Amino acid sequence: MRRLDQLLSSLGYCSRREARGWVAAGRLALKGAVADDFGAKADPADVTVDGEPLDHPAGLLLLLHKPVGLVCSHDGREGPDIYSLIPSRWRQRNPSVTSIGRLDKDTSGVLLLTDLSPLVHRLTSPKHKVPKVYRATVDRDLSPDLIAQFASGTLLLDGEDAPCAPAILNLLSAREAELTLTEGRYHQVRRMFAASGATVLTLHRARFGPLELGDLPAGQWRELPLDFFGA
Ligand code: URA
User: Fold this and answer.
1) What's the predicted TM-score (pTM) here?
2) Is 104 a catalytic residue?
3) Taking CB atoms and a 6 Å cutoff, what residues make up the pocket around ligand 1?
4) CA dist 81 → 19, 59, 73, 105, 156 (Å)
5) Residues 55, 81, 104, 106: which is the catalytic one?
6) For 88-100, how does the pLDDT look when each residue is reduced to its tens digit (9 = 90+)?
């Protein structure tokens, strides 16, 4: 049970102060009867705004095909961001909708967005070892020796003490590879290839756990059931 003014502000409709005005204007109903107390506690399922049920009161889980050119940060100073791709009401939610892990500005592919903070923690925790599959093109021919090097669990990235966890490298052509990681360090794919002298030219995340993009176009998202990864 949540207060009506809190419900509206946390779901991104308006501020708490504005919510009081919405109630005074008779825009909210509780079980079909116009609500007159903005402090009344209600089950979100019983509330309507302008006759419509509340917008995803239990939370959001989205699969986004991140395009290149957008950052995952909420800080506007870092440039255009992925949050411009979702409806403005969802951008106003609190807890806010945030990406589960991040992709670089120049990386495209599978990115999950949610306002369910426990899910963010669960899926980004190194304990859970969610496999993520990346496709990279690089600026020089890749040596098959890299397969054993990446799989060894001994590769040290510049400036780090702990070696990378074992990773699976599949060479697709001389300068194209698929890399499966179970961790998510800063710029990890680019830095792993850099350790062998190769520069990543394009990077795309093809899979996150069981999720692939299918025919979802770049810049588009689709909803996933909130219990997709278990309750
Ligand atoms: N590794 C990178 O280098 N960049 C990404 O965006 C994701 C993984």
Assistant:
1) 0.95
2) yes
3) 103-104, 107, 187-190, 203
4) 28, 21, 6, 9, 31
5) 104
6) 999 999 999 999 9
